[in-house]
Automatic annotation (TrEMBL):
InterPro entries: A_deaminase_dom, ADE, Ado/ade_deaminase, Metal_Hydrolase
Active site: 201 (proton donor)
Residues involved in substrate binding: 280
Free-text remark on how the cofactor is bound: Binds 1 zinc ion per subunit.
Residues that coordinate or bind Zn(2+): 18, 20, 198, 279
Gene Ontology molecular function, alphabetical: adenine deaminase activity; zinc ion binding
Organism in which the protein naturally occurs: Motilimonas pumila
Enzyme nomenclature, EC number: 3.5.4.2
Domain of life, source organism: Bacteria
Keyword annotations: Hydrolase, Metal-binding, Nucleotide metabolism, Zinc
Purpose: Catalyzes the hydrolytic deamination of adenine to hypoxanthine. Plays an important role in the purine salvage pathway and in nitrogen catabolism.
GO CC, one annotated term: cytosol
Pfam family, one: A_deaminase
Lineage: Bacteria, Pseudomonadati, Pseudomonadota, Gammaproteobacteria, Alteromonadales
Protein name: Adenine deaminase
Length: 339
């Protein structure tokens, strides 16, 4: 990557659509909250934490990620976590975000739904007012838990529907196909919520078909294994179904052996609405800019590619039409200064 491309990518206005707030918990904040809340961590210092972040598959990461989330206890903790992420967004010219949170991770530890959502929502509101970052929040169900548990979580969310735009599906993909949650997602849609779901990260392309047919998703999270199924590719291209791709996550979790093997630019050139996202930046080595840099270094992504990826994210986001036009105008102005 040339220094000119790097500088231009840093300044490019960006939209992030696949970010787990619990995955933005940096080791420094993890230690601070662990001490404050008297929570035991299996690490003595930040160095040890970083050493533990070596994964050979999704489950290795999830085990450590759920352990880290144990330090989040009070409404202020959820505020601080979300605010720290928004400050990173500000520093990286990310203008609109649609983060995920995993309420079941916290409910299982006796934390109230209200504590979690009120802390996150207050930070997002302050982010809009003070940082100019617009946002929509998505509540994810953990797919390794039961349908019943997800349904009970949706019931807990009902008094807070004004703070949530949609529901998603994350955690261990293999053995937990989307149809396990058909009824939960139908109920969510009845309540007026949009739907998204992780699929085709480790799981087969058939899971992506099921997300479209059964869960009626507006976006597929990851979705990179779609390229194994030509009929599915045709379907995604024709319908402009967005995929929220996470390049650094995919290489850290060995979905691709190396960035040079990643299929995102191939899919982009074939007409798939692919976007760039950071997933769990505190665990995978970077936020939005680092993901774009990794594509420039590993796949020879050009400024044209980057503009297209950023425009796709604007097309795919759940912001109002007015906000989308503002975001697109900002991106087009930036395009005039292309290296
Ligand atoms: O990439 C992911 N996949 C599934 N579950 C997750 N929870 C956080 N990140 C992920
Ligand atoms: Zn994810």
């Amino acid at each position: 990557m040339t220094p000119a491309l790097e500088a231009w990518l840093r300044k490019m206005p960006k939209v992030e659509l696949h970010l787990h707030l619990e995955g933005s918990l940096e080791p420094e904040l993890m230690f601070k909250l662990a001490q404050k809340n008297a929570i035991d961590l299996p690490f003595n210092n930040v160095e040890q934490v970083k050493q533990a972040y070596q994964f050979s598959q999704l489950q290795d990461f999830l085990d450590i990620y759920y352990q880290g989330a144990n330090v989040l206890v009070t409404e202020q903790d959820f505020f601080d976590l979300t605010w720290a992420y928004l400050l990173q967004c500000k520093a990286q010219n990310v203008r609109h975000v649609e983060p995920f949170f995993d309420p079941q991770t916290h409910l299982a530890r006796g934390i109230n739904f209200a504590t979690v959502i009120n802390g996150i929502h207050a930070a997002l509101l302050q982010g809009q007012q003070e940082l100019g970052i617009s946002s929509e929040l998505i509540m994810c169900f953990l797919r390794h838990l039961s349908e019943q548990d997800a349904m009970a979580t949706l019931a807990l969310a009902e008094p807070y529907l004004d703070k949530i735009i949609g529901v998603g599906l994350d955690s261990s993909e293999m053995g937990h196909p989307p149809e396990k949650f058909s009824r939960v997602f139908a109920k969510a849609r009845q309540l007026g919520l949009l739907t998204v779901a992780h699929a085709g990260e480790e799981g087969p392309a058939s899971y992506i078909h099921t997300c479209l047919d059964d869960l009626q998703v507006s976006r597929v999270d990851h979705g990179v294994r779609a390229s194994e199924d030509p009929d599915l590719m045709e379907r995604l291209i024709t319908s402009r179904m967005p995929l929220t791709v996470c390049p650094l996550s995919n290489t850290k979790l060995k979905v691709f052996s190396d960035m040079s093997q990643h299929n995102i630019l191939q899919m982009l050139e074939q007409g798939v609405c692919v976007t760039v996202n950071s997933d769990d930046p505190a665990y995978f080595g970077g936020y939005m800019n680092e993901n774009f840099f990794a594509l420039a270094n590993g796949l020879e992504m050009t400024a044209d590619h980057a503009m297209m990826l950023a425009a796709n994210a604007i097309e795919a986001c759940f912001a109002s039409g007015k906000r989308k036009s503002q975001l697109l105008l900002g991106l087009l102005k930036h395009g005039a200064a292309m290296p």
